[in-house]
Design a protein that fits this description.
Layout: H1 3-23, H2 30-51, H3 55-74, H4 85-89, E1 93-98, H5 105-117, E2 119-124, H6 127-134, H7 142-150, E3 155-160, H8 168-173, E4 177-180, H9 188-197, E5 204-207, H10 219-229
Helix pairs in contact: 1-2, 1-3, 2-3
Length: about 240
């Protein structure tokens, strides 16, 4: 199997994911809802086999999922719009980066928004650099944080960042867009300037302006809550 087959199967998977995303929140008769659930199971299996490099089995699974959804579309149970395969094969590369220490809905919101823009590459901060940005040592080690993020459905590929040069992964991935979270430290204009110095002239830097408002949509607040529940002083080091 070559890279082209891998990419084409992944495009089919993305199309089904997008179709199922259109269904979320819609009222569906119970007898048809079972078919949607079955399509979701086949999608899960397709992604599993794709990650294992078994692209034929992955394609068979995603074809079943696509057929189930299409049958509901032909029966006019669902109004689903499929994307052209060519557009999915040419989806832009979207890079997101962060600590991703304790995954919460804020992380999921960022990754979903990135996925809506294109194929998501996530760069996970190294343990060595964690203190530089967070002013504390990581609770969750880098390999574990990587494993969690690479198994999130919106993420195409997750890698560890570079210990000495935070822009090295950007040079390697060559994304079309870098999507920043609302509170992430880089200044968009300065980041674009640094990228151009490295010959990355066509990378757009965008920021997700909307922040989900909940006290526990913050790793720092989650840690404080855990300490409080267990009778510890959150201010103690």
């Amino acid at each position: 199997m070559n890279v082209d087959v891998k990419e084409r199967v992944y495009a089919y998977i993305t199309n089904v994911e997008k179709a199922l995303d259109q269904i979320k929140g819609k009222e569906i008769d119970a007898k048809y809802k079972k078919l949607v659930e079955l399509a979701e199971i086949y999608l899960h299996d397709a992604k599993y086999y794709h990650e294992k490099g078994d692209y034929i089995t992955s394609l068979a699974c995603i074809a079943y999922a696509e057929g189930l959804i299409d049958s509901l579309r032909f029966l006019e149970v669902l109004d689903i719009k499929w994307e052209a395969l060519s557009s999915l094969l040419e989806r832009p590369k979207i890079l997101v980066a962060g600590g991703f220490e304790i995954i919460h809905p804020g992380h999921m919101y960022l990754l979903k928004k990135a996925w809506e823009l294109g194929r998501v590459y996530a760069v996970i901060a190294r343990d060595k650099n964690f203190y530089k940005f967070k002013k504390r040592q990581p609770i969750i080690p880098e390999e574990q944080r990587l494993e969690v993020v690479e198994n999130i459905k919106y993420v195409y590929k997750a890698i560890l960042g570079d210990e000495n040069d935070y822009l090295k992964p950007v040079e390697e991935i060559k994304p079309d867009i870098i999507l920043l979270g609302p509170d992430q430290w880089p200044n968009e204009n300065k980041l674009v300037h640094e990228l151009k110095k490295r010959g990355l002239n066509n990378v757009r830097v965008e920021r997700l302006n909307k922040r989900l408002s909940n006290d526990l949509y913050s790793v720092s607040n989650i840690i404080k809550k855990i300490l409080s529940v267990h009778g510890c002083n959150p201010e103690q080091k």
